[in-house]
Design a protein that fits this description.
One of its GO terms (molecular function) is peroxiredoxin activity. This is Peroxidase-related enzyme. It comes from Actinospica durhamensis. This protein has 202 residues and is an all-alpha fold. It is built from ten helices and no strands. It starts with a helix and ends with a helix.
């Protein structure tokens, strides 16, 4: 599944990496998956010049966000996919083409959106806590943007220094997540997600 995310979000596509991360974040927001919306939103904020303010606007309502008509039309298609494949209407496709989207733009938008509907359900079906602290997601985004989604099969290049740096980054992410989880321990209905399970929380 991580390899699939690597291909979808960092592989060949006419959509920029930032646009694909933004689509992933928006669809996840529509599916009420906090972990995916926050983590991919953080990635999009790193990759797009407008940063977090734009991502937050898109997650709330793309129709009011300062984005071009092409991206707005593609996000409308992505939002329809979140409702169900049947919800994608011919007029949405026509509007996207009129705004400058090519068939591959539309195809990749639907593919990313559909895949994240699956990811959202997978993540929220694991019955684990999701941190609400943006700092935890900033750490995740830094790793994903610079290193990608594929899980390394061997130690990072650069010897002991690189290994120590990788361990330090992992420890920092764990600490941030633990702090977030601790701060939320008194909530009556904690949100569920993938993050805490990866870090060993119950």
């Amino acid at each position: 599944m991580m390899d699939l995310a690597e291909v979808l979000l960092r592989g060949d596509s006419p959509l920029t990496r930032g646009e694909r991360e933004l689509i992933a974040a928006y669809v996840s927001e529509q599916n009420d998956c906090e972990y995916c919306a926050a983590s991919h939103g953080a990635c999009a904020a790193v990759l797009m010049p407008e940063g977090t303010p734009l991502v937050d606007q898109v997650r709330k309502d793309p129709s009011l966000a300062p984005i071009d008509d092409r991206l707005r039309a593609l996000l409308a298609i992505a939002g329809a996919v979140a409702q169900g494949g049947w919800a994608v209407k011919e007029e949405q496709i026509t509007a996207a083409r009129a705004a400058g989207a090519e068939d591959r733009d539309i195809h990749d938008t639907v593919l990313v959106a559909a895949a994240f509907c699956m990811y959202n359900r997978y993540v929220d079906g694991l019955a684990t806590l999701t941190p609400h602290d943006p700092a935890a997601y900033a750490l995740v985004a830094d790793r994903l943007v610079t290193q990608g989604y594929a899980i390394p099969s061997q130690a990072p290049a650069g010897g002991a220094a690189a290994i120590s740096a990788a361990k330090a980054a992992a420890a920092a992410a764990s600490a941030a997540a633990a702090a977030a989880a601790a701060g939320e321990a008194e909530e009556n209905t904690p949100r569920r997600g993938f993050f805490a399970r990866l870090l060993g929380s119950k």
